[in-house]
Amino acid sequence: MKATEILLIIINFAGSLAVFLFAMKMMSEGLQKAAGSKMRAVLGKMTGTRLSGILTGTAVTAAIQSSSATTVMVVSFVNAGLLTLGGAVAVIMGANIGTTATAWIITLLGLGEGSGYFSLPLLIAAVSLVFMFGKKDKMKSIGQTVIGLSLLLVGMSLLQASMPNLEQYPSLLHGIASLSGYGFWSVLLFVVIGAGLTCIVQASAAMMAITLVMCYNGWIGLDMAIALVMGQNIGTTITANLAAMVAGTAGKRAARAHLVFNVVGVLLTLVCFRPIVSLIQHIFPTDLPMAITLFHTIFNVGNTIILAWFIPQIIWLVERMVSEPKDEKDTDEFRLTYISRGPVSTAELNLESAKKEIMLFSKQVLRMYALLPEFRMVRNTKDMDDLVARIEKYERLTDRMDMELTKFLTAVGGGDISGHGSERISSMLRICDNLESIGDSILQIALTRKNKYSDAIHFGDSQNANLAEMSALVENALLVMDANLVDYNHADLAAAEAAEQSVNAFRDRLRAEHLKALSQGLYGYEVGNAYSSLYAQYEKLADFVINVSEAAAGENHHNKEVNS
């Protein structure tokens, strides 16, 4: 075979694979835009038992056509404490079953001389959906899914065409035959090859497609194809383990459990490899692609049925593989809880994680605000400095949270996302910005309190009582804001506006009383300046609070003008 022929084969194959991968990505993202947030909600709720966890993992993966997306979600859920490690292992087992749906689609629709026949009708149907229901996000997403499926069939047709006829290249045929001629060692070799190539491509569906085409074109026999499939199941765990590199101990353990499950499944299958191959050959003696797809299903379902009884033992093993560091529970160290700080995975599924992260951001702000009443009990300089230092530390954390979430949401928004998802990202970015501004305002109140203490300025009883009441009104507004971040669709904007109006009305009353007191000489300029500065800062903080609720509710309100 000439070098130019080899180069041409490689280019054609790479181009065909690129079309296939693009189609898989488009189909998966279309499915996730249509049902992604619901899939994540289902994943968080239906994992009470082993069976429900397995069924959940199967359903979610089959629905979104991406076992990698499911396992990355599982890692983030375990890392956040929403899933137990046992529940995560069950979901991962189900995800392995769900991924077999892709193989059946490829085998039934994408192989043979008629593999491209369905692509044009599907494309016409998808375009019709987009034109007829172009303004509806869900229909757009379904149309994208169908277009992805159409392109997937085109990609399969191109892959078949790019595979050279081995009869024309006897040297290539001899080389492949030599790799298959070492008995059980060849099986192990092809397991390693399958794992390695899947790690590189990071798409087990693509490797499954290549394996099916190789069998269809007569490149490899059933036994070596089955070995490749087993290796692919090991290689596909790389995505979750990459995502877990920046996760906590629980997330790392979930990713390792995925690896352990697949490795143990491969080892169990290798023990009875020849009987399994004989059984599959007996069922499909001539149709190798169907035989491989059947094995893929039996392999994942069978391993799940067997290993589901050994989930406690898997947990025991991964707990020893990943030990818990002593500082794991260090709450002072900033760490994204619901979002893995690795490569951003499929866009639509990340919005629920970002929402939960924003809820933690809000709780952080509430804890920071709860420190302000302690200023009234400070009795010495050291206590004052310690209290201000604690608030400054919280403020730095809010800055980091805002920065990390903004970076993450911007990356998600740069992906393929629905119109509704894009609007929600804009709302979330506005929420993060205002939560960070609330943290800044709390710090400013703290510094004003510190300056008042340093300058030996003392308020009267009525002034202290007024500031305490103002603080309580703002706290109520913060609590309403925090509740509105739980469910954006049912955010109580009326309650948020009522809370803000109460703060504004009380500020107006304090301002009038303050001007009257100054004109009557009831207190000096220094006291009056510190007093008016504090109640004005509380009111300014409340403006940021209402902005958060408005953004959560999705109302087209403008940010309030905040006096500097």
Give the topology.
Elements: H1 3-45, H2 50-64, H3 67-80, H4 85-98, H5 100-109, H6 119-132, H7 137-162, H8 170-179, H9 184-201, H10 204-216, H11 222-235, H12 238-244, H13 249-271, H14 273-283, H15 288-307, H16 311-321, H17 350-369, H18 381-413, H19 419-454, H20 461-484, H21 493-519, H22 525-553
Helix pairs in contact: 1-2, 1-7, 2-4, 3-4, 3-12, 3-13, 4-13, 4-15, 4-16, 5-10, 5-15, 6-7, 9-11, 10-11, 10-15, 11-13, 11-15, 12-13, 13-15, 13-16, 14-15, 17-18, 17-19, 17-20, 18-19, 19-22, 20-21, 20-22, 21-22
Detailed description of the structure:
The radius of gyration is 30 Å and the shape is elongated. The protein contains 22 helices and no strands. The termini are far apart. The protein has helices spanning 3-45, 50-64, 67-80, 85-98, 100-109, 119-132, 137-162, 170-179, 184-201, 204-216, 222-235, 238-244, 249-271, 273-283, 288-307, 311-321, 350-369, 381-413, 419-454, 461-484, 493-519, 525-553. With 564 residues, it is mostly helical.
Q: Summarize model confidence as the mean pLDDT.
A: 81
The helix content, as a percent range, equals: over 70%
Sheet with most strands: none
Our count of domains comes out at 2
The coarse silhouette is: elongated
Count the E strands: 0
- The quaternary organization reads as single chain
Secondary-structure element sequence? HHHHHHHHHHHHHHHHHHHHHH
Rg, Cα atoms, Å: 30 Å
Number of helices: 22
| Structural class by helix and strand composition | mainly alpha
The residue ranges in which pLDDT falls below 50 over 5 or more consecutive positions are 327-333, 555-564
How far the N terminus sits from the C terminus, by CA atoms, comes to: 76 Å
What fraction of residues sit in β-strands?
A: under 5%
